[in-house]
Amino acid sequence: MQDHSQSLLANGPDQSAAPSLVELLRAQISSSSELSFLMEAHDGLSAAIAERAGFKGLWASGLSIACSLGYRDANEASWSHLVDVVERIVDSSQLPVLVDGDGGFGNFNNARLLARKLLQRGAAGVALEDSCFPKMNSFVGDRHPLADIDEFSGRLRAVKDAVADDLVLVARIEALIAGHGMDKAILRAHAYADAGADAILIHSRQSTADEILSFVNAWQNRLPIVIVPTKYYRTPVSAYRNARISTVIWANHSMRAAIAAMRQVCGRIIAEESAASVEPNIATLDELFELLRYDELAGAEARYLPHPLTDDNRLHPHSGVHS
């Protein structure tokens, strides 16, 4: 009898030649010649929608995941909450997932534990920010305290030693948002590159991309640059391509869209005591079933569940022959 695994290899596609999700994410982030885009996901549904829209990678947003769980983006959700949600995001699409790991939920030991758990759950990369624990969302308040450069570099080295190249490691710099200026941001970027980061995420809360582009010019492409244009969203994408920025993250837009849509629907239904007026503007049940592939389940039931037997083909319970 032919070995089943050999039969699969002989008759199916060569899976060994397919790039892994980590390789796919690394290719997207490392390229300075082609701008890539990561879309926020905060659960399995938002991941499936982003994939269907055409995105090639996902950002597991700490803000949006915390929001979906009813927590604030201030490390109120634990690392175990995060990895559980990441597992659902990974399982719901075929896309590589870069995880917003905040500051690693503590010191070097917490950061490397987080990285190992994310690797186990199928994440392709993790971004760690040089904030203190517990962190506060970058856009809340002013002059957030930053981690010591050497201490945060130790977190990065610990993660790299724990997972090697099995996860893409992005170092996120909060110096500009915290008001520490360009020179300190560049200093931190060099230190984090030396610590083993694969890319630098430079963050800004300004309404234009001026300081981001100034950073990119000073950085001279030592490592790929990732940006999050939440506040400077009016900047044309051509500016990022011209600056050879690697990756743009749309970091919280699905969650914000969901909040706006749910508020509107809930408000109308309670005011009108009817769903009639909202039905034309919300997804149909058929769309929901199609998105989550209920057709696949029906096909699997036909293949794997026993079929009801008729009197003509029922087997005798003892003899094994037709009665």
TrEMBL record:
Gene3D superfamilies, per the entry: Phosphoenolpyruvate-binding domains
Enzyme Commission designation: 5.4.2.9
A molecular-function term among this protein's GO annotations: phosphoenolpyruvate mutase activity
InterPro entries on file: ICL/PEPM, PEnolPyrv_PMutase_core, Pyrv/PenolPyrv_kinase-like_dom, Pyrv_kinase-like_dom_sf
Alphabetic keyword roster: Isomerase, Pyruvate
Enzyme class: isomerase
Keyword Chloroplast tagged: no
Pfam families tied to this protein: PEP_mutase (PF13714)
Family note: Belongs to the isocitrate lyase/PEP mutase superfamily. PEP mutase family.
Protein name: phosphoenolpyruvate mutase
